């Protein structure tokens, strides 16, 4: 009896392994939701891929609401740009829905520096002003695609690729971006490479960037 049970368990495990290799969790965006709502329960300590759902009786219209995107972000900073994010951190009702957005403000000569969203494609709509935008494909091509975009224009930054926006104009620029994740994440290249805590050893960065260690130390000191 025990032997039969053991072989049944083995067969079930083999089937599961086969199914997993076939359906190996490869999805093109956030996993699709299996219920109407899964409003993020910020108080929950349950760790899942996403955020645990609130009890439906505690869900309110406020969970799907954000106000203030008519206001410009504060661009008084070294880059001259400001991102006002509206993702699951601000709107709990976005949990499991695979979508979010942001307002980006750029002062004259403001830059949204090279960065990537590990979990989202981004689509940008120009509301005011002009931008020089671009993204670079992965190795080995590292091909740069750029364009100058004006009011009413739309530009796409494919998922995971390094991209930037620069306001070369003399007036402020404003864009709204939509992202294909409730939690797109941001990896700003300069900050992660030169501003990590603790720092990446300067001899490693010197060799990576083919410069003297003093150059690396100089850049790291700015973060
Ligand atoms: C904008 O940010 C700068 C730098 O942090 C700060 O000095 C200034 O008070 C901020 N302005 C507003 C309106 O919040």
Please explain how this structure is put together.
By secondary structure, the chain is of the alpha+beta class. It folds into two domains: 61-185, Jelly Rolls (Sandwich); 188-223, no CATH class. The chain has four helices and ten strands; from the N terminus they run αββββββββββααα. It has helices spanning 2-22, 189-194, 202-209, 213-221, and strands at 81-86, 100-106, 111-116, 122-128, 130-136, 144-150, 154-157, 162-166, 173-179, 187-188. A hairpin with a 7-residue loop joins β5 and β6 (144-150). It is globular, with a radius of gyration of 22 Å. The protein starts with a helix and ends with a helix. Mean pLDDT is 90; it is low at 12-24. The site of 2-acetamido-2-deoxy-beta-D-glucopyranose (NAG) has 2 residues, from loops. It comes from Oryza punctata (Red rice). It is found in: Secreted, Extracellular space, Apoplast. Keywords: Apoplast, Disulfide bond, Manganese, Metal-binding, Secreted, Signal.
Topology:
Elements: H1 2-22, E1 81-86, E2 100-106, E3 111-116, E4 122-128, E5 130-136, E6 144-150, E7 154-157, E8 162-166, E9 173-179, E10 187-188, H2 189-194, H3 202-209, H4 213-221
Antiparallel strand pairs: 1-2, 2-9, 3-8, 3-10, 4-7, 4-9, 5-6, 5-8
Helix pairs in contact: 3-4
2-acetamido-2-deoxy-beta-D-glucopyranose binds next to loops.
Protein name: Germin-like protein
InterPro entries: Cupin_1 (IPR006045), Germin (IPR001929), Germin_Mn-BS (IPR019780), RmlC-like_jellyroll (IPR014710), RmlC_Cupin_sf (IPR011051)
Main location: secreted
């Amino acid at each position: 009896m025990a032997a039969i049970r053991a072989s049944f368990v083995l067969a079930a495990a083999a089937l599961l392994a086969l199914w997993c290799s076939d359906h190996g969790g490869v999805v093109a965006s956030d996993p699709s939701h299996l219920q109407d709502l899964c409003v993020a329960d910020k108080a929950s300590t349950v760790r899942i891929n996403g955020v645990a759902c609130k009890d439906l009786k505690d869900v309110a219209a406020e969970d799907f609401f954000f106000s203030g995107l008519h206001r410009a972000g504060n661009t008084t900073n070294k880059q001259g740009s400001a991102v006002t994010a509206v993702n699951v951190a601000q709107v709990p009702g976005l949990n499991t829905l695979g979508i979010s957005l942001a307002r980006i403000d750029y002062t004259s000569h403001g830059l949204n520096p090279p960065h990537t969203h590990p979990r989202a494609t981004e689509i940008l709509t120009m509301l005011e002003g002009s931008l020089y935008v671009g993204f670079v494909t992965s190795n080995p091509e590292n091909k740069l695609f750029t364009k100058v975009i004006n009011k009413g224009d739309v530009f796409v930054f494919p998922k995971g690729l390094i991209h930037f926006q620069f306001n070369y104009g003399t007036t402020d620029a404003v864009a709204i971006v939509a992202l294909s994740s409730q939690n797109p994440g941001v990896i700003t290249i300069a900050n992660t490479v030169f501003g990590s805590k603790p720092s990446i050893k300067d001899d490693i960065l010197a060799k990576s960037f083919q410069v003297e260690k003093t150059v690396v130390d100089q850049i790291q000191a700015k973060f």
